Amino acid sequence: MFAEERRDKIFELIKDGKAVAVNELCDIFNVSSSTIRRDLQQLEDSGLINRTHGGAVVAEGRKFEPSFIEKEKEHPNAKKKIAKQALELIEDGDTIILDAGTTTTELARLLEELSDLTIVTNATNIALELSTSKHQIILTGGILKKKTLAMVGPIAELNLRNLNPDKVFLGANGITLSDGLTTPDLVEANTKKAMLERAKEVIILADHSKFGETAFVKIAEIKDIDTIITDRDLNRETLKKFKENVEIILA
């Protein structure tokens, strides 16, 4: 198991509100106590946990990633409008990557309007959604993140790095000019980076609530993004500042 993946799993255990002991983590991950202490120190340095005598607890005031079902309930109309706008950027014959997420899922549901697409995705629900379509569907493989239905990790990254897609439609938990594109999950961030690095055109699908938010891990700088599609509830001042740095399309 890679160190990043182990730390992510340690954090998953701790963030459920349970205090964990070093020796317990050693048994779970079959590593030395010194390795676990280094992992805990890095998680504490990142502000995710507080170390205690012989273990760790979650840091107070942390915001955690909601599940796919919870995300579906947030701004559903805005997500549908963003997806419809994104559809206009896709042409028959395109090779695209659809990142896991609720807005990209809305886009997947509209792709029946097109034919002859090659669609790469790390989202199990999107693959199922498109399983009866006429398009060619490629799953990245990887470790299933059950909370968000995303496949992530080194296997997904390796497979993505062998592809040359035309466009990637990517989601994020936070977008700011200073911190760029961010997400709460260490492992998923690297999978998103692999998607972004391979595509000729990078398109972010994000409703207005993601702007001004910063999650734990940086995915990319704003300069690495070609286009952001968002909804018309985005603050005018924020819109003006972003337009100076990246193309913004309002759905």
From TrEMBL:
Keywords of the record: DNA-binding, Transcription, Transcription regulation
GO molecular-function terms, A-Z: DNA binding; DNA-binding transcription factor activity
UniProt-listed InterPro entries: Carb_Metab_HTH_regulators (IPR050313), DeoR-like_C (IPR014036), DeoR_HTH (IPR001034), NagB/RpiA_transferase-like (IPR037171), Tscrpt_reg_HTH_DeoR_CS (IPR018356), WH-like_DNA-bd_sf (IPR036388), WH_DNA-bd_sf (IPR036390)
Coiled-coil segments: none
Boundaries of every HTH deoR-type domain copy: 3-58
One Pfam family named in its UniProt record: DeoRC
DNA-binding recorded as keyword: yes
Transmembrane segments: none
Entry annotated with the keyword Transcription regulation: yes
Protein name in the entry: DeoR family transcriptional regulator
Organism this protein belongs to: Orenia marismortui
